[in-house]
Design brief:
A four-stranded mixed β-sheet has the order 2-1-3-4, covered by helices on one side. A hairpin with a 4-residue loop joins β3 and β4. The chain is built from nine helices and four strands. The protein is of the alpha+beta class.
Length: about 230
């Protein structure tokens, strides 16, 4: 297998790249990095000393490609498929890249702040930081609600890298910080994403690990049940 993707099955950023791979039916092998296992952790640090996941290894060129946006860019350049996740038009590219970063930085990152704070030892929580994360999600949700009001997908009529970023970010964020009741376009967009075959596959593969999610009690039952 030429491509190996090193992942954690519950990581939103890993889901982003998996969606991109499944959209184009790109052959690859997924390997779970177990940070609780010294050998697995050390091997991953050798791959990418920052220690973040996912990381893609291309055996044909012996290249290690980190960072989700760069991985998807690399896949489109070297392993293109029928779905152009990054458009050719320069202005359209800017829109997709902006929205990709938006979902990563202003939905996924504050969501992760809230989730990881629950894992901290007693007495070491960061209530101020968590409050800031909730406020950021409120701001981000409002911006998405307005932007998506006249669009099918994040950047327009076509599914792109921005949507690969959007679903895992919104999936976990909506559990720890639900959408406001008066929002209409954001929930509709989330439902469209959730029915995408690539997304359904990622969700199905993640389900066996949901019991490890710190906010599992808040996860909607429909996501815990098997995906049809």
């Amino acid at each position: 297998m030429t491509l190996t993707l090193y992942i954690h099955p519950l990581a939103s950023f890993c889901h982003k790249v998996l969606i991109a791979l499944y959209e184009n039916g790109t052959p690859f092998e997924a390997k779970i990095v177990d940070f609780g296992n010294p050998g697995s952790a050390a091997a991953h640090l050798d791959r990418w000393p920052v220690g973040k996941i996912p990381v893609l290894h291309d055996g044909s060129s012996e290249r290690v490609i980190p960072e989700t946006t760069i991985i998807i860019d690399y896949l489109q350049q070297h392993f293109p498929g029928p779905v152009r996740l990054i458009p050719d038009d320069a202005d359209a590219q800017l829109e997709v890249r902006l929205l990709d970063r938006f979902f990563d930085l202003y939905v996924s990152v504050p969501m992760q702040k809230i989730v990881t704070d629950r894992l901290r030892p007693a007495g070491h929580n960061d209530p101020h930081g968590v409050a800031e994360a909730h406020a950021m999600l409120d701001q981000a949700y409002g911006m998405i609600e307005r932007r998506i009001s006249d669009r099918r997908w994040a950047a327009g009529d076509h599914f792109t890298m921005a949507d690969c970023s959007a679903w895992p970010a919104l999936f976990f964020a909506s559990i720890v910080h639900p959408f406001a009741d008066d929002y209409r376009h954001l929930p509709d967009y989330f439902e469209r994403l959730s029915w995408r075959p690539s997304v359904k596959r990622v969700l199905a593969e993640a389900q066996p690990y949901f019991e490890l999610f710190p906010y599992r009690e808040a996860m909607p039952k429909r996501f815990i049940d098997a995906v049809g």
